[in-house]
Amino acid sequence: MKLKYSLFALIAINANLLSSEVVNFDQMSITATKVETATKEVTQSIAVVDEKTIEDKNILNIQQAIENIPGVIAESSSNSPSPKLVIRGAGLKARYGVREIMVMKDGVPMTDPDSFTRFDYIDMQDVSSIEVQKGPGSINAANATGGVIQLITKSVFDDSINRVKAGIGDDGQQNFNLKVGDKISENDYASVAFSSRKIDNSWRDNNDFDSSQLSLKHGHIFKNDSTIESEIAYTKSNMNLPASMTKTEFEEFKQTGEQHNTSDIWQNSARDSEILSLNTKYEKEFGNFTFKPRFYFNTWDHYHPVTGMINDSDDNNVFGTDLELDNNHKLFSNDATFVTGLTWKKDQTKDAKKYTYKDLDTTTTTSWGGATTTRINRTLSNEKGDLASREDTDTTLYGIYAMESFKPTEKLSIDISSRLDKLDFNINSTDYIAYNYSNDSYNYLTSDEETNIDKSYTLLSNKLGFSYALSDTTNIYTSIARANQAPTTSELETNENLDKTTSINYEIGLKSRANEFAYDLAIYQNNVKDEVVQIINSDSQTDYANAGETEKRGLEFNLAYNLTKNLQTGGAYAYSDYTYKSFTETYYSSSLRAMTQASRDGNYLPYIPKNLYSIFLALNLDNGFKSRVTAKTYGSYYMDNANTQKYEGYDLITDLMVGYERKNHNIQLNINNVFDKYYAMDASKSTSGEETYKAAAPRSTMLTYSYKF
To answer: Which run of H or E residues covers position 255?
Structure first.
């Protein structure tokens, strides 16, 4: 048990190389291979964000934590837990939420079986470190080719984590966090955490957010040193989602920093949700074996007005288990580890409803034939109107995995892993009213339209990796990994014929951990067959199709250097060359007044810039004064599959922290977007030429005080 507790201490104390913030030496990963491994020896690109970075940056959302990791794109247009998250191009197709990326918390999957992840029920103020594994082939990644994000929360066994924290800032920002834990008996530990957040975002219409989160943890150490940890957590979140802008409106925003009264029809989008989750994990050693079963369950409801319809779903349940068995043994006279396990997870939604918007500004027109059409000009509230559809879904994933990690020589490490998953979809829906995207009107169906989708995918993931110690400080690694990605439930509803994606990744890299500096270099090529891509058609509706083949080639470099014992500097750079090798896009041609096709072979994938980099400087003086400045640049990118137009990106968006830490007291000022630059976090263009922009947040300031007790 001492080893387990010292590991948590190691993670908390070490600084962080791979998030491009501060230097880390002999950093450990406890999740990349399901066994404790130095990051220098992990046979894939991996980044770790430590607790000091999380505290110094006053991280309240996942995107703030990982936005400077090379190869990762993390943006939010709403200053709330609603990020756009892309790892090496994976996740690009998501209209909302996060897809193609596995998110885990303390080894428990937070991602639904169809690869959809919500971040509104994750309390980032209870997170002590974050690991990001990039690319396919991870043993943790069930139905996820983009990689794995592992959130490690503050351990219930650590009674030194008691803290109260309060912050206040502009735009009505308020933040409060309380964490209390203690040993309640000889073998029992307990902790409680409460967080409350609020922000008005008055610079833009319909963008306020508030949430309350409460979690209770219990841990028990048995006489045989086995342990059991359990957590129950509750979240209530109210999040208004701002409208997008036209090109003209975006130009106005760039002049004023304000976004009001836009022409977008959907002015009242939101996601209000309540989530109750619980999980328990047991760990028992017997001989050379360790048994690690995990069980988890969450139930949630949401009220989710979006384009065209209002989603109202109050009977959603996710439950599952992961049964892991580790065996430490000898191979080639060196220590080796064999990991195997079984996974089962089910996501059930019963009687999910969609409604029309009740309060609308409309225009009624009459055709020459006498038919009338009521066009929606604008929503006036998010109150629900007539029932439009009902839906039941049942998604089940079950699989088996295995991995062998061994050393043929003292300098050479080899990982061989494989997992096989079966994913079953059962979707039954009945539509009474349809939304017509072409003329922005509701179509009341003369008879009920029933849809039944029953589809299965077999998903195979394999990886072979080598790491060789060139010296005591530097390792070279190479790997080949293959994985499948199934479509999501919402994608199948728009195109039932979607195939699974096959991703094959080739990678080589260097990792160095020296006394004064550390760096990571990775070069990769990811060939993706039948990738599911997003198509924004002429009526701004999002459709999905399989691209024939895409090729993603990239280079990622990360460097941190100790200028003195108190001053660190460094940066990160990512070069991305992502192209369609074979893709024919189907869209409506207004000139031909018919559906047509166009080859996109050789075109670049939209939204992904060729160049993305960040730099940082961190100061930590012995007298308690500290400061950190980080600046990031996002290069230009194409806005559509046809590559007809580029968005220029943004340069040197700068964040600043100044603070003072003395004994148990900490006070700090965080300023994001110091120079108050106005830019878009997302720019896209439909097949008809309509440009859409989503604004990034202007300057934001928060003063925070915390006390540890």
So the answer is: helix 247-256
SS3 call for 32: coil
Could you give the dihedral angle defined by the CA atoms of residues 124, 126, 131 and 135, in that order, rounded to the nearest 10 degrees?
-40
DSSP strand pairing (501-513 vs 517-529): antiparallel
The distance in angstroms from the start CA to the end CA of the chain is: 24
Chain center to CA of 116: 9
Third-level CATH fold of 2-257+282-351+365-379+401-708: Maltoporin; Chain A (2.40.170)
Distance CA 130, CA 19 (A): 10
DSSP 12: H
Of 270, 274, 248, whose CA–CA distance to 259 is shortest?
A: 248
In the 3-class helix/strand/coil scheme, how is 331-368 assigned residue by residue?
ECCEEEEEEEEEEEEEEEEEEEEEEEECCEEEEEEECC
* Residues whose CB is less than 8 angstroms from the CB of residue 414 and which lie 6 or more positions away in sequence, other chains included: 43, 405, 406, 407, 408, 464, 465, 466, 467
Give burial (CB, 10 Å; 0-12/13-18/19+) of 525: middle
Per residue in 461-489, pLDDT tens?
999 999 999 999 999 999 999 999 999 88
Q: Which residues fall within 8 angstroms of residue 279, CB to CB, at 6 or more apart?
A: 106, 108, 230, 231, 294, 295, 296, 297
* DSSP secondary structure code for residue 607 in this structure: T
Contacts 24+ apart (CB under 8 A), 433-437: 433/356, 433/386, 433/387, 433/388, 433/389, 434/388, 435/308, 435/309, 435/356, 435/388, 437/308, 437/537, 437/539, 437/540, 437/541
Read off the tokens for 489: 């439930």
Least confident of 84-88, 170-174, 202-206, 370-374: 370-374
Q: Does the structure show a pLDDT above 70 at 14? A: no
CA atoms within 13 A on the CB side of 73: 27
- Strand 28-29 relative to strand 46-49, pairing: unpaired
- pLDDT tens readout for residues 103-143: 999 988 889 888 888 888 889 899 999 999 999 999 999 99
d(CA 211, CA 205): 19
Average the pLDDT over 496-522 and give the result.
94
CA 535 to chain centre: 21
Instruction: Please provide the DSSP assignment of 104-161 as one string.
Output: EETTEE-S-TTS-B--TT--GGGEEEEEEEESS--TT-TT-SSEEEEEEEPPTT-TT-
What is the C-alpha to C-alpha distance for residues 105 and 294, in angstroms, rounded to an integer? 12
Which tokens in the block code for residue 645? 């137009």
Express each pLDDT in 202-226 by its tens digit.
999 999 999 999 999 999 999 988 9
Q: Which two tokens stand for residue 100?
A: 């193609």
Specify the range with the lowest mean pLDDT, choosing from 82-91, 320-329, 498-507.
82-91
Give the per-residue pLDDT at 538. 53
CA–CA separation, 460 and 420 (whole Å)? 5
Q: Which residue, chain included where needed, has tokens 């530990």? A: 189
549, 38 in Cβ contact below 8 A? Answer: no
Percent of the chain topping pLDDT 90: 75
Structure tokens at 126: 């209870």
**pTM, to two decimals:** 0.90
> pLDDT at position 3, please?
34
Instruction: Of 56, 27, 52, 51, give the one whose Cα is nearest residue 41.
Output: 27
Please return the burial class of 674, using the count of CB atoms within 10 Å of its CB with bins 0-12, 13-18 and 19+.
middle
- The continuous run of DSSP H or E covering 576 comes out as strand 567-582
Q: How is the chain split into domains, by residue range?
A: 2-257+282-351+365-379+401-708
Phi, psi of 635 (to 5 degrees): -70, 175
